[in-house]
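Example S7 (structure tokens).
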């Protein structure tokens, strides 16, 4: 498709689709072909979006009662479900992700809105018995305008993670998707308008991080910032939020471990470990990119893992048989490959994959399932977030050694533990420095279950009821109900 005939995706501000200050070509990473052109927001468009959000708070959206907010969130969940075929195909083309994955993520998107639609009923103050003739109570009020930034790896799902609790709390939102992958967030905003969300409650502004993103974060009309992305960018956002002291939530990088003990059920542990790294081609913050295996079973595990990883079907994202699609771009493909080459240079053995495919047509961004063995946890590929389909398999001696290696990174987002001993599993869950630990299961994120990180993986929690508090202020009110005059100075 030529740029001239490509579909155009505008910004969504104050209830309507508008043009931006510039444009960007959108490329299907699996083929290198242009499939769309995105409008990009400049400072003027950000100003307009923030003004629209503030106007919604001061107007119709701010006056919307809790039961109506709940109804609207349920209606938006229904709209996502009805349009799931369109949304999943848009997501797969835009990101290069397997259609089976994007369809599954749509179920998560629907459930996120349903969870927070129901959770609205938990927003309540309380009375405080401070005694005497004083009546004290608290109120929960929306923080205000939320500036939200979502990444390219889960564009629609991450948009729902951010939007749902903010809207449930009564905030108005200006959300910036990654400029490479804006299409499903924009379509979601259109659906929100169709089901009745007031103009200005949801605004979508596409643009580059250092310009559009930085301006949104610094904007004096934005009261709270939520960001998902790299640890480096998260640090920059912290600095931007520090001077005005804005409320901030960060969900950042990871280098998550999969701990496999000799007493584990390997019939579950091995395929789950394969899925935990190669789902979404390893482009997940919680990807278990380090597999730590008890020494007694290490060699057998490496062989079995490699055999199963070699059977993961990589190919056309829109093919229902595909299990792993492409990476997001050729630039990212080169970045992933540089880590694998670095592992070779440090003495690692690449026992599977490790080469850019040459037998695929087009300017593609595919990279095969890759397995690296023979390196210590101190190696670069074991310490840095590769964000691709590359796993490092590392042996450990015993439980103490496993905990040491698991915690020996700067991140702390997710961990999986595989053992036949429930007591050991619970022990490890308390010792591993991670926001989420799965025992004998590979899955990570569920609506209602808080998700977030320790250490440089960020702070604050999403998905759970805890996320509502990130978008609420607590106000204390005290009333004198007595009849006696109050004269503290005795004047």
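Recovered sequence:
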């Amino acid at each position: 498709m030529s740029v001239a005939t490509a579909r155009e995706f505008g910004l969504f501000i104050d209830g309507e689709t508008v043009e931006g200050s510039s444009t960007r070509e959108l490329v299907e990473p699996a083929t290198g072909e242009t499939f769309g052109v995105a409008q990009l927001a400049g400072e003027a468009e950000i100003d307009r979006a923030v003004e629209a959000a503030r106007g919604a708070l001061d107007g119709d959206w701010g006056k919307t009662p809790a039961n109506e907010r709940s109804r609207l969130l349920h209606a938006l969940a229904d709209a996502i479900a009805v349009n799931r075929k369109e949304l999943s195909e848009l997501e797969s083309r835009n990101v290069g992700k397997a259609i089976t994955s994007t369809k599954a993520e749509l179920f998560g998107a629907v459930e996120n809105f349903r969870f927070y639609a129901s959770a609205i009923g938990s927003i309540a103050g309380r009375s405080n018995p401070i005694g005497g003739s004083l009546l004290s109570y608290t109120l929960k009020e929306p923080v205000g305008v939320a500036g939200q930034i979502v990444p390219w790896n889960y564009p629609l799902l991450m948009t729902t993670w951010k939007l749902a609790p903010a809207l449930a709390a009564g905030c108005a939102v200006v959300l910036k998707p990654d400029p490479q992958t804006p299409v499903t967030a924009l379509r979601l905003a259109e659906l929100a308008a169709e089901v009745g969300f007031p103009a200005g409650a949801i605004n979508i502004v596409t643009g580059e991080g250092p310009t559009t993103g930085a301006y949104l974060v610094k904007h004096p009309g934005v009261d709270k910032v939520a960001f998902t992305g790299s640890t480096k960018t998260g640090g920059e956002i912290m600095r931007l939020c520090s001077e005005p002291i804005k409320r901030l939530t960060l969900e950042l990088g990871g280098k998550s471990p999969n701990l496999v003990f000799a007493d584990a059920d390997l019939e579950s542990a091995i395929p789950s470990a394969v899925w935990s790294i190669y789902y979404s081609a390893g482009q997940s913050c919680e990807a278990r990119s380090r597999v730590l295996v008890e020494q007694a079973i290490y060699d057998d595990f490496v062989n079995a893992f490699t055999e199963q990883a070699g059977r993961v079907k990589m190919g056309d994202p829109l093919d229902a048989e595909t299990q792993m699609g492409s990476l997001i771009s050729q630039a990212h493909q080169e970045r992933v490959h540089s880590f694998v080459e670095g592992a070779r240079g440090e003495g690692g053995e690449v026992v599977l994959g490790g080469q850019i495919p040459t037998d695929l047509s087009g300017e593609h961004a595919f990279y095969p399932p890759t397995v690296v063995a023979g390196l210590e946890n101190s190696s670069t590929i074991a310490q840095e977030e590769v964000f691709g389909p590359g796993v490092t398999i590392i042996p450990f001696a015993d439980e103490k050694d496993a905990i040491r290696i698991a915690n020996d990174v700067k991140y702390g987002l997710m961990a999986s533990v595989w053992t036949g001993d429930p007591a050991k599993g619970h022990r490890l869950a308390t010792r591993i420095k991670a926001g989420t630990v799965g025992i004998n299961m590979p899955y990570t994120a569920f609506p209602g279950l808080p998700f977030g990180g320790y250490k440089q993986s960020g702070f604050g929690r999403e998905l759970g009821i805890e996320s509502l508090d990130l978008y609420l202020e607590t106000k204390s009110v005290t009333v004198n109900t007595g009849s006696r005059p109050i004269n503290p100075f005795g004047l």
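Notes on this example. DSSP finds 15 helices and 23 strands in the chain.
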